[in-house]
């Protein structure tokens, strides 16, 4: 692999993880009412796993998982752009009759999909325990609501066999850092200030 390709992969893995982490801290600051429950979950889980931040312990933090997934839903690093960019390599006709000529560039509107009421109740609103409740309601397929799950209504990781292979590492990194902050710091916005505004940059690799 050439150096340029290696650097592209490194940037793709670093900036997206740090972006989601930053947005998670912004949401915690804007919604401090979640902090006591999240902090209790972290402490209780560490007691259960004898103080070890193991993979199993992090996987057991369902509330934190839900909070981060909801943050990613509304603040995906790729929201400002479409995701899953593809180019047709031959003419194709879809099942609904839509004709796509060879060479056509196709993209998925992630921002709109993540806020579509067809997929989510009160879709524009932040609900930190949205996916916890969905997991509890959907016993047989609760796993599809995990943070690392790539689905057609959650395209932050991509979709299908080309979904981001680094999402499992990102999941561990983000949870470790947020859990540490929850255990050691209180977070809130300055009095009278709302959620930190978004600053978007072109970030597709």
From TrEMBL:
SUPFAM superfamilies: Cytochrome P450. Gene3D superfamilies: Cytochrome P450. This is Cytochrome P450. GO terms for molecular function: heme binding; iron ion binding; monooxygenase activity; oxidoreductase activity, acting on paired donors, with incorporation or reduction of molecular oxygen. It comes from Glomerella acutata. Belongs to the cytochrome P450 family. The keyword Iron applies. Its cofactor is heme. PANTHER family: CYTOCHROME P450, P450, PUTATIVE (EUROFUNG)-RELATED. Keywords: Heme, Iron, Metal-binding, Monooxygenase, Oxidoreductase. InterPro entries: Cyt_P450, Cyt_P450_CS, Cyt_P450_E_grp-I, Cyt_P450_sf. Heme binds at residue 164.
